[in-house]
Amino acid sequence: MGEKNIFLELRTMKGLSQEELAEKVFVSRQAVSRWENGETTPNTETLKLLSRLFDVSINTLLGSPRPMVCHCCGMTLDEASTSRETDGSYNENYCKWCYREGEFTLDYWQRYAELGGDEGFNRFKAQLMDEFNALQIDGMPRVEQLNVLTGSYINLEYTLPSGHKVKLLNDQASYLGNQLECTFGGSRCFGIAANMQFLLVCTYEANGANPELVLFKQR
Question: Whose CA, among 19, 138, 152, 192, lies 20 to 30 Å from 176?
């Protein structure tokens, strides 16, 4: 849909006249006409009403001026993958797998209020990145981003010097982590994971093959 005619297209698809649309979102018919001509843009509250009425994201109403990504897992969002609130409205900060009907699905995000909301959570991630970078592990590049990852996705099995095999994470929990390419080159990558209790650094080959534990440190 084009940026200037999206309101016309959505109104037509809904089978509404300009007067009927104006009545539903509490504006004048002239205001609707100006949107459709690209002369003005609805205010924030009206955009929310239009988003619910047409069942599209605000980003779509604005002509998709920015790429949307989930603030939790980092995946790119579209209409189908964007989360919703309990009233059915879009929450364009998260995907539907990380946030559903007003609740975060991963335990880390269920606890994010304890960390002071988004601002506090970002401070916590920055602190973890500083701790990883302070380790100065040979070949591991500087950590500049952490994503929320489920334990089942990153819970690799390591062989201890005794020969015993062990997994150190909880499949049902979630962690902050990332995959980093080794600065020495080669086929192995670094994997990092952390929560409030520990930092973990490992290396592995493609698809997590032949993992080796580099560090497991209590915080």
Answer: 138
Token code pair at residue 16: 């509404």
93 near 121, Cβ under 8 Å?
Answer: no
Q: Which of 121, 160, 127 is nearest to 143 (CA)?
A: 127
What is the model's pTM? 0.60
Token pair of 145 as six digits: 């981003």
Spatial distance between the Cα atoms of 204 and 54, rounded to a whole number of angstroms:
47
Element (H, E) at 35: helix 29-36
Cα–Cα distance, 129 to 94 (Å, whole number): 22
The pLDDT tens digits for 27-38 are: 999 999 999 988
Tens of pLDDT along 153-176?
A: 899 999 988 889 999 999 888 899
Q: What is the CA radius of gyration of the chain?
A: 23
Collapse the DSSP code of 2 into the 3-class scheme (helix H, G, I; strand E, B; otherwise coil) and give the result.
coil
